[in-house]
Amino acid sequence: MSAALFGKICWVLLVAGWYVIRYPFERRAKRRRVQKTARGRAETVRMLISLSGLGILPGIFVATGFPRFATYSPSPVQTGLGVAAMIAALVLFRLTHKALGRMWSVSLDIREKHELVTSGIYRQVRHPMYTAFWTMALAQALLLPNLVAGLAGLVGFGTLYFLRVGPEEAMMEETFGQAYRDYRARTARLVPGIY
After folding, report:
1. Which ranges does the record mark as transmembrane (predicted)?
2. Residue 26: which residues within 8 A CB-CB, separation 6 or more?
3. Which DSSP letter does residue 122 get?
4. How large is the average pLDDT for residues 90-111?
């Protein structure tokens, strides 16, 4: 099996793993009433851009090979690094969902009886879910040997991240006040000790 085909298979497994991890939390979240939301047109656009980069464009490439002009032959080392990033992304997804439990939301929502989660993986990082998505986008870039489809995840998710993290932190500060300011002061945004 070629490194390119193996990388495509691994990308499909990454997306399937992400869905398997997320699905039960999404079902539970629908049962809890949203008390406050920042959803709207801007959030929908951000989510669509991210979905295009992490799902639609790479899915088209895996299914059809389009766009062929941007395809190259990957090295086994590149694919191996992609598999390592894939595993790390799925582990991070699982840890974040487990720590959030009932507080999980796909968007900028404050649920009824919402609590500030500062345990588990959230003890050191405020946004480990975003860390997981950055790692997923990196895995995609390494696993899919196409300059458009492979890099689309970094661009798509990067757009969502940079346009959303500020409003999200403002919403958390407005909801939890000093508790969130203290939490923000002692944690990194994405990577402990770095950022």
Report:
1. 6-25, 45-66, 78-95, 133-163
2. 106
3. G
4. 86
Number of helices (H), then strands (E), in the chain = 7, 2
Query: How far apart are alpha carbons 21 and 23 in whole angstroms?
Result: 6
Model confidence over 36-75: pLDDT tens digits? Answer: 777 789 889 999 999 999 999 999 999 999 999 999 999 9
* Cβ count within 10 A of residue 50: 22
User: pLDDT tier at 28 (50, 70, 90 boundaries)?
Assistant: confident
Joined tokens for residue 15:
């997306």
- The neighbour count for residue 195, using CB atoms within 10 Å, is 9
Average pLDDT over residues 5-33: 90
Q: Write out the two tokens for 162.
A: 């940079």
DSSP 36: E
The pair of structure tokens assigned to 8 is: 């495509």
Q: Using CA atoms, how far apart are residues 134 and 162, in angstroms rounded to an integer?
A: 12
Please name the CATH architecture into which domain 3-186 falls: Up-down Bundle (1.20)
Give the type of residue at 19: Y
